[in-house]
Amino acid sequence: MARADRERLLDRLREPVEGDDEVLAITRVGSVRIPCTMAIGTLRCFVIDVEDIEVGVAFWSEVTGIPLISSVWPDRFAYLGYQDEKTWKHEIILHRVPTAKTSDSGTGDVARRLDPAANRAHIDITVEDVDVAIAQIEAIGGRLKY
Length: 146
Fold this sequence. Notes:
two-stranded antiparallel ribbon, 3 helices
C-alpha cells in the first residue's frame, strides 16, 4: 500500500462515527491509536496444545521470534512473551497435553485415535460477563462445544 493511501485510510479510521457519543475502547493500527466501540471481548493470547513443552518452545519461539518467559507451572505450561523487572506479558501459551496430534483423514484404526475432535489451538478472549458474551457470540453464529 502506498504511503498516501495508508495515510488516507488512517485518517478515515480516526474520523468519529456518527451517533457514537462515547469512545468505549482504543485499538491500534501500527502506532496509531484509534477510538472504537467495545467488542464482545478482548484478545488475551493464543494457546497451542503440544505433547513436548521443550520441542514446542523451540519451534514456536523460532517461528514467531517471541522469547520464552517464566512459568509457575513449567511442566504443564510454557509462555512466550516479554518480561522485565516490572512487566510480564504472554502472547502465546504452550499447553502440554497427553494426547498425540491426530488426523481426521479417516485412515487408520479409528479405535487407536485418542481424540480426533480435539482442537490443537485456540484463542483466549477476556470478557466482563461470560453469560452475556456467550449470548452475544451465539447471536452472531457462534456455538458452545461441550
